[in-house]
TrEMBL record:
One of the protein's GO biological processes: carbohydrate metabolic process
Domain Glycosyl hydrolase family 13 catalytic: 40-440
GO molecular function annotations of the record: alpha-1,4-glucosidase activity
One Pfam family in the UniProt entry: Alpha-amylase
EC code: 3.2.1.20
PANTHER family: ALPHA-AMYLASE FAMILY MEMBER, MALTASE A2-RELATED
InterPro entries cross-referenced by the UniProt entry: GH, GH13_cat_dom, Glyco_hydro_b, O16G_dom_2
Record organism: Drosophila persimilis
Signal sequence segment: 1-24
Catalysed reactions, semicolon-separated: Hydrolysis of terminal, non-reducing (1->4)-linked alpha-D-glucose residues with release of alpha-D-glucose
UniProt keyword terms in alphabetical order: Glycoprotein, Glycosidase, Hydrolase, Signal
Family affiliation: Belongs to the glycosyl hydrolase 13 family.
Designated name of the protein: alpha-glucosidase
Length: 587
């Protein structure tokens, strides 16, 4: 039927049932990213197509059907750009080309083409804060070539009055241990690097840099990407030099003797500055302009920030300006991680996002990425389904890090096999505190050699030990598995208007049971209950919500559950085994 006639018809229908539900549905109609299932691919470890032990673009392309089958809306890829791989692609030497071991621009075009055929969106990692020291911009800046003199943050340092020796401009430390300043012999100045020595911070007070980085965004938009996930945004700007041309020192907390580890009282000189928020707003303009000119779906901006809510929430925009579509919400990582997962720590994490969320903005939930230990290891394998359910039942977008759908756990990496600079910059005795390698081990496709990831003798990181049982092949053929539960959840999110548009109520019951209710007038309510304790318990859901009906229908259950799906359960006396998590609905 013709679209206009359809619209007319639905308008008439609306009038017939008298406004309200129709009106709110019309107003609340959601854009694709607001209910999206995002999936993070770590390209180096997803699929190796040519047997060199390293994942690559053709490998990803060959597995896009898997993502489609999972129900993923959009995949974001960690960096695939030309890089010396000091920080595995987060040190970019050419922002406009593909890392040769991952493939070519043509391979990337083929990836995008296949993704479009499958109606999957591809999002790239944008790494705005720094470039590799092998980037031509840096080389030109070292030589003070015209136009590049101030591309990076350069400083003479200061001369120590007692020793007469030159010292770094300030006491700032890099994220990977040691000074954030590196002396350059050629230019005879220090440059700033908030991450590794080989990751030089770009100078965002230079309009040429701002414009160059917008060029990067448009270049990849032209190649068909659906948006960007922006890396390490809060450290974009640092404080300016004072009237004497000097940088202020951060105040050290004194809580540890480890002089190489960042332990500042506030660290507000080197991160979370106001100018950074405005830069995100400028990138949003790039996205919106692009859509206006070229048409197509909304191009999204997702922002990585580990910052206090008052800062993070500003990225969404304010009453007059649009900002990022979604600043990533890491509360479920940073909160529960410290004391193991408990219902009360989840509640605190959810509160801190939803209570601070500006009106009309979309929430999102992340439980892992390539910088953290894997979710199933952090929350406990027994809680893997409970956590996957949680991020899909809570309102807004949900994000999966590759392998969470299988409940993959951390790899065990010896000091000899260690690759991550955050660990390599330490030593054999303490590297495990810093290493991010365990969550970066290759993805598990099968129970065969190298888990079907690669035909190489040796993969770039060893496989995690549990691949024989935790893999796509085994979990797909099992009657019940984490993977099947995950797929059922994605399916439910897609089909349930309540999950897409409904209101949210949540709370803690007994010692360690977390409950969420999603509800929408005219639709069924969805109730999530998870017992995060190590022993069984019986709960009365009326203590949580007196308006529930006497019985709820079971839709999805965690592996620990021996209940039956599509059966009714009494609300006032619901027994839950240890680790049992359920998704129920009113009939
Ligand atoms: C919104 O942000 C813009 C850009 O940073 C700023 O100029 C403006 O004052 C802000 N408006 C409000 C209402 O906070
Ligand atoms: C989660 C994430 O993307 N972390 C990255 C933040 O930025 C630094 C520097 O670019 C990387 O090392 C991290 O992997
Ligand atoms: Ca390869
Ligand atoms: Ca910076």
């Amino acid at each position: 039927m013709h679209r206009a006639r359809l619209n007319l018809l639905s308008t008439l229908l609306c009038l017939a049932v008298l406004a309200n539900p129709c009106l709110s549905a019309a107003v609340k109609s959601k854009d694709w990213w607001e209910t999206a299932q995002f999936y993070q691919i770590y390209p180096r470890s997803f699929m190796d197509s040519d047997g060199d032990g390293i994942g690559d673009l053709n490998g990803i392309t060959s597995k896009l059907e898997y993502l489609k089958d999972l129900g993923v809306t959009a995949a974001w890829l960690s960096p695939i750009f030309t890089s010396p791989m000091v920080d595995f692609g987060y040190d970019i030497s050419d922002f406009f080309d593909i890392q040769p071991e991952y493939g070519t621009l043509d391979d990337f075009r083929a990836l995008i083409k296949k993704a479009k055929e499958l109606d999957l969106k591809i999002i790239l990692d944008f790494v705005p804060n720094h470039s590799s020291d092998e980037n031509e911009w840096f080389k030109k800046s070292v030589k003070r070539e015209k136009g590049y003199e101030d591309y990076y943050v350069w400083h003479d340092g200061k001369v120590n009055a007692e020793t007469g020796k030159r010292e770094p401009p300030s006491n700032w430390l890099q994220a990977f241990r040691g000074s954030a300043w590196e002396w350059n012999d050629v230019r005879q100045q220090y440059y700033l690097h908030q991450f590794a020595v080989q990751q030089a911070d770009l100078n965002y007070r230079n309009p040429l840099v701002v414009e160059q980085m917008k060029r990067v965004l448009r270049y990849w938009l032209d190649l068909g990407v659906a948006g960007f996930r922006c890396d390490a945004v809060p450290v974009l700007f640092e404080i300016e030099t004072d009237e004497n041309g000097q940088y202020a020192d951060e105040e050290v907390s004194g809580l540890t003797d480890d002089v190489d580890a960042r332990n500042y009282l506030k660290s507000d000189l080197i991160e979370n500055r106001a100018e950074t928020i405005d830069m995100a707003y400028q990138w949003r303009v790039v996205m919106d302009d692009y859509q206006r000119i070229h048409g197509g779906d909304t191009r999204v901006l997702l922002i990585e920030t580990y910052a206090p809510p008052a800062y993070t929430m500003q990225f969404y925009g304010n009453r007059s300006v649009e900002g990022a579509h979604l600043p990533f919400n890491f509360n479920l990582i940073t909160g529960p991680a410290s004391d193991g997962v408990s219902a009360s720590s989840i509640k605190t994490a959810v509160d801190s996002w939803l209570n601070n969320l500006p009106p009309g903005r979309t929430a999102n939930w992340v439980i892992g990425n390539h910088d953290q230990r894997r979710a199933a290891s952090r929350y406990g394998a027994a809680n893997a389904d409970a956590m996957n359910m949680l991020v899909m039942i809570l309102p807004g977008a949900s994000v999966t890090y590759q392998g969470e759908e299988l409940a993959m756990t951390d790899g065990e990496i010896s000091w000899e096999d260690t690759q991550d600079p955050a660990a390599c910059n330490s030593n054999a005795d303490i590297y495990e505190q810093f290493t991010r390698d365990p969550s970066r081990t290759p993805f598990h496709w099968t129970s065969g050699t190298n888990a079907g990831f690669s035909t190489a003798q040796k993969t770039w990181l060893p496989l995690a030990p549990d691949y024989a049982t935790v893999n796509v092949e085994t979990e797909s053929s099992a009657e019940r598995s984490h993977l099947k539960i995950y797929k059922a959840l994605v399916e439910l999110r897609k089909t349930s208007t309540t999950l897409q548009k409904g209101s949210t109520k949540y709370g803690v019951l007994k010692e360690n049971v977390f409950v969420v209710k999603r509800y929408l007038s005219g639709s069924e309510s969805i109730v999530y209950v998870a017992n995060l304790a190590s022993k069984g318990i019986t709960v009365d859901l009326y203590e949580f919500d007196k308006t529930l009906p006497t019985h709820l229908n079971l839709l999805i259950r965690s592996l620990q559950s021996s209940k039956k799906e599509n059966a009714l359960f009494e609300v006032y006396e619901l027994s839950l085994a240890a680790g049992e998590a359920l998704v129920l609905s009113t009939i």
